[in-house]
Design a protein that fits this description.
The protein is built from 15 helices and 29 strands. Helix content is 23%, strand content 17%. By secondary structure, it is an alpha/beta fold. Its cofactor is Mn(2+).
Length: 698
């Protein structure tokens, strides 16, 4: 009868011992009944009964290759990942084995319940594969979550002994607590060669871009904790709470000075009578508070670096719906590659900790509510359980390998808008190319620049038809004999009234789904820029896709929104003087605008483009897309005539935004830092190698 010893621990440092009598199939479990239930959830092919002996002569793995990236193809062989024409990576898990040295001493790192949960999640996911010959990724069943449990020299030999190790290529290792005292380096100090590491606590220096995955530091002490629901609209008692143990004395002194400035800052520490009770915190007067419940009473919660950059406090804060204030220079936030943490957290340099109140007081109530919603969304979707974290990690790797099937920014970050129509069924996920687009040009009497625009757009390969909306009731349009010959149909529609909304009327002459709205002074756009814009719209037919961009900002001084045209990285609108949209939104603009918004625009002869941005973003919940880098959109001959040349223009546009917010009852616009450019547009290569050669500059 064979007897095998298995050890199980939690990341919190609680270990269990289990003996398995293999031949009789009897499990003897001490306190670790829970550990046994976890292994029973694993597929039988992972519960190996084999043991491996490693000697002093066994070859260790090579040191960590710090030059690995996804794109150099020396650390990840992507051709292993395309079997069966599927856009899902296949992940193989090595069977759990016991490792001994030549003296019969067990050198297997203890297996935590958390690591078993990671293996269980993968084995029950769509990514799992039983066939190592067809696997894209390999997961060693060696628990490296907590560096304190690891003997690096022995683990290095264990990794090198794996059958498909191959210098660590296509292998993924999980580590949440890197480094040990006294240095506490922020990466896994084990010879891992070319293996990827999903690590908690990476810095911007130790993280290998596009290769490693930054994951959260899971807090097992939160298991089973349920907090009462709290509305993101509800006011909180405290502006800021600090609840961490063992902070550096410098940080403690700085926090004391912050408390002296504002009585809405609350400092908590371990309780002297029960220092090991994680569910309690004591204030400076010694009064006890339930933890993490007390965090629900704060608007902002500090997450300050400790010995390690990554802190489990982040999990506590997110669970409580408190906005984290990260004070850890160089720390890479979990899943930063796909999650937009600027929407859900505040980052403060360590040297600026004494100025934290100046920063926090600048946030408007509306912004705070948005950040609370976002942090709750991240918690529920990606952080609430180890299973969620594991699947998010694999999805990030999957998106790298299959970029054409990757989740979009919105899919990773956007909250479900229950009031919005998400991609109406009749809007295809990808519009057909054969139909092309209709250019709708709004004009009044600038015939020369109008003809320039017609000539330019007429050169675009995907153009189907040109419709000119003649908005001048006093002067007739030129006869067709004088119009440029573009080889494409041109239809001139004379309107009865001079209204800016005429550009969005769903004319029967528009036979394509796609419309390119143009002003008669946008003479600088090249055919390549317009063709590329159409290609982007085809992939996003439920969005506005355009060229000139603008941004709305909240002004604390006036407690209102302002319209900004400065060159910034963020955008929330694209101007419809040059923008693609679906004809469906022309119908909605004409017949389904809220209140008297359309009439208000016609009366003020301004802001029809802002109104269209409000409409599309409110319906779809998606921000517009800016294409190509050009930022200047001026007609040199028309500057004196342009509406935007009026000094009062910016004030009027700001008034439009605030009036529209009142009509909609909320601010639907979404600021994003995103732009679409053609592949190779920045590369100094011959034009023959580029599909879109003629692109404007800034």
């Amino acid at each position: 009868m064979g007897k095998r010893k298995w050890s199980f621990c939690s990341m919190a440092g609680i270990c269990f011992v289990a003996f398995i009598f293999v031949n009789l199939g009897i499990w003897w479990l001490g306190p670790s009944w829970r550990a046994a239930s976890y292994t029973r959830d694993l597929p039988p092919e992972l519960l190996s009964h084999e043991s491996v002996m490693l000697t002093s002569d066994s070859t260790p793995a090579n040191p960590r290759d710090s030059n690995c990236t996804f794109h150099n193809f020396t650390c990840l062989e992507v051709y292993h990942c395309g079997y069966d024409d599927k856009s899902v990576i296949s992940v193989y898990i090595y069977p759990i084995q016991q490792y001994y040295d030549e003296h019969g001493v067990d050198i297997t790192p203890p297996m935590t319940r958390e690591f078993q949960e990671i293996l269980r999640t993968i084995s029950q996911s769509l990514f799992y594969s039983k066939d190592p010959e067809r696997a894209c990724l390999f997961i060693p069943s060696v628990d490296l979550l907590n560096h304190n449990w690891i003997r690096p020299a022995q683990v290095s030999k264990i990794l090198a002994s794996l059958k498909w190790w191959n210098s660590g290529k296509n292998h993924l290792l999980f580590n949440m607590l890197p480094g040990t005292a006294p240095d506490f380096v922020n990466y896994l100090v084990v010879n891992t060669d070319k293996a990827m590491v999903a690590g908690g606590g990476f810095s911007s220096i130790t993280y290998r871009r596009t290769f490693d995955v930054s994951i959260p530091v899971y807090n097992p002490l939160l298991e089973g904790v349920e907090l009462p629901a709290k509305s993101h609209l509800e006011d909180r008692k405290w502006l800021l709470i600090s609840s961490q143990f063992g902070l550096n004395v410098v940080y403690k002194a700085e926090l004391q000075s912050v408390v002296a400035k504002d009585n809405k800052v609350f400092l908590l520490d371990r309780c002297k009578g029960t220092p090991l009770n994680y569910s309690l915190r004591c204030d400076q007067l010694g009064q006890e508070h339930l933890y993490p419940n007390i965090l629900q009473d704060a608007t902002f919660c500090l997450v300050i670096r400790g010995n390690r950059l990554g802190q489990p406090t982040l999990m506590d804060v997110m669970m409580a719906g408190c906005i984290p204030v990260i004070v850890a220079d160089g720390y890479l936030m979990p899943f930063h590659e796909v999650l937009d943490w600027t929407r859900a957290s505040i980052h403060l340099k360590e040297q600026h900790l004494p100025d934290v109140l100046d920063v926090l007081n600048k946030y408007s109530p509306e912004r705070i509510q948005d950040m609370r919603r976002q942090i709750y969304y991240y918690w529920q979707r990606y952080f609430k359980s180890l299973s969620d974290m594991t699947l998010a990690t694999l999805q990030i790797v999957n998106d790298r390998i299959f970029p054409f099937h990757a989740r979009s920014y919105d899919q990773w970050n956007e909250l479900l808008n229950r009031k919005a129509v998400k991609n109406p069924l009749f809007l295809p996920l990808r519009a057909p190319k054969s139909l092309g687009f209709t250019a709708v040009i709004l004009t009044y009497d600038r015939v020369d620049s109008l003809f320039q625009v017609v000539r330019q757009v007429g050169k675009v390969p995907s153009l189907s038809k040109i419709i000119v909306v003649w908005n001048n009731q006093e002067v007739a349009p030129p006869p067709m004999s004088q119009w440029p010959n573009t080889g494409k149909p041109i239809k001139v529609i004379t309107t009865k009234f001079n209204r800016l909304s005429n550009r969005f009327f769903p004319y029967d002459e528009i036979e394509t789904e796609c419309i390119l709205a143009l002003d008669d002074d946008i003479v600088m756009l090249t055919p390549d820029e317009m063709e590329f814009g159409y290609e982007v719209w085809r992939e996003h037919p439920d969005r506005l896709v355009g060229y000139p961009s603008r941004l709305h900002l909240w002004q604390n001084s006036t407690q209102s929104y302002s319209y900004e045209s400065e060159w910034m990285n963020a955008i929330s609108m694209v101007l419809t003087g040059a923008a693609f949209h679906h004809k469906y939104f022309s119908f909605m603009y004409t017949y389904s605008m809220p209140g008297n918004l359309k009439q208000w625009v016609d009366k003020h002869i301004n802001c029809e483009d802002i109104a269209m941005n409000f409409l599309v973003t409110n319906v779809t919940g998606k921000a517009p897309i800016k294409v190509v880098p050009r930022k200047k959109f001026k007609c040199p001959e028309c500057v004196k005539e342009m509406l935007s040349a009026d000094m009062s223009h910016m004030v009027e546009r700001s008034e439009c935004i605030n009036h529209f917010v009142e009509l909609y009852g909320a601010m639907p616009l979404k600021p994003v830092e995103f732009r679409c450019d053609p592949v190779l547009y920045k590369d100094k290569l011959p034009g023959v190698l580029k599909k879109f050669k003629d692109l404007g500059v800034l």
